[in-house]
Each structure stands twice: as C-alpha cells, then as structure tokens.
Amino acid sequence: MTDTSIQFEQSLDYLLSRLGKKSWEQPLKLLEEKLRQIPVEECSFAVELINMLHQLNEALTADVDTPLSQMAAIRIASFECWTFRFFKETPEGRRYLEPLTSSVSDFCHAISIQQSSSQFPAPDIIKRWAREHLQ
C-alpha cells in the first residue's frame, strides 16, 4: 500500500466517521481502487471524493438536516473521472469496462485509458448507483 493510499484511507475513515456514514466506506474504496488507474496528473477520484466529503461535512455543520445521500449522489455524478474510458483489447475487439459494475480485478490487468468529452456512465446512472450504495 502506498503513502497516498494510506492517506486516502485515513481521510476517508475520518470524514465518514464525522458524517456518520461509515457504511459508505466499502463502496467508495472499491470505486477508488478502480478509478486510481487514471493518471493523477490528469484527474484524481480520491482527491475529488475527499473534497466532496469535506464539503458535506461543512454542510452538515451548518444544517444537521442536510440530505447527505442526495447531495453525495449529485456531486459524485459531476466528478471529472467519469470522462475517462477504460478498455481492454481482446481477440474479439475492444471491451469497455464500466467502473460501477465491472470488478476490481478487471481494472488490474493491461487496461488502456482514454479521455472523452462526455461522461460514462451517464449522470443518472451514477446518481442511481450512489443512491443505492451511499445510504
């Protein structure tokens, strides 16, 4: 585990504890593990996520009735990481990986990454995933 991974996990643990959302830890860690394939100089899901959790913490401090799950779904769907496409070249042709549904192991072996001008999956699918996994 790298220093960056340790820092991310410590920050994630701390912020989720503050928000009372420890149940979010596993799905967010799995998603980060997949999206860390994006070169850091291009984009960092971990940085976007930690920044979002800080913002949610500030919102919760200002208003204890802040709808955290709804806010998280909206904000996660706007992350830059969704403009990156992950794919593998196979004998059958190019196979795209979907970060929300593909396994972590799919992202560990000889994948290529390309940035696009649009999000994938679509924002409504990202929001649905977040509402289902971040309650």
Question: Main traits of this protein?
Answer:
5 helices, globular, three-stranded antiparallel sheet, 135 residues, 49% helix, mainly alpha, 3 strands
Give the SSE layout.
Layout: H1 3-19, H2 25-35, H3 45-62, H4 68-76, E1 84-90, E2 93-97, E3 112-115, H5 123-133
Antiparallel strand pairs: 1-2, 1-3
Helix pairs in contact: 1-3, 3-4, 4-5
What would you note in describing this structure?
With 135 residues, the protein is mainly alpha-helical. The protein has one domain (3-133). The chain is built from 5 helices and 3 strands, in the order ααααβββα. The chain has helices at 3-19, 25-35, 45-62, 68-76, 123-133; strands at residues 84-90, 93-97, 112-115. Strands 2-1-3 form a 3-stranded antiparallel sheet, with no helix packed on it. Helix 3 (45-62) packs antiparallel against helix 4 and helix 4 runs antiparallel to helix 5 (123-133). The model has no long low-confidence stretch (mean pLDDT 94).
E-strand count: 3
Shape: globular
**Number of separate helices:** 5
Q: How far from one another are the termini?
A: 28 Å
Q: Order of strands across the biggest sheet?
A: 2-1-3
Task: Write down the domain tally.
Answer: 1
The profile of the biggest β sheet is: 3 strands, antiparallel
Radius of gyration: 15 Å
Order of helices and strands: HHHHEEEH
Helix content: 40-55%
Spans where pLDDT lies below 50 across 5 or more residues: none
Rounded mean pLDDT is 94
Strand content: 5-15%
Structural class determined from secondary elements: mainly alpha
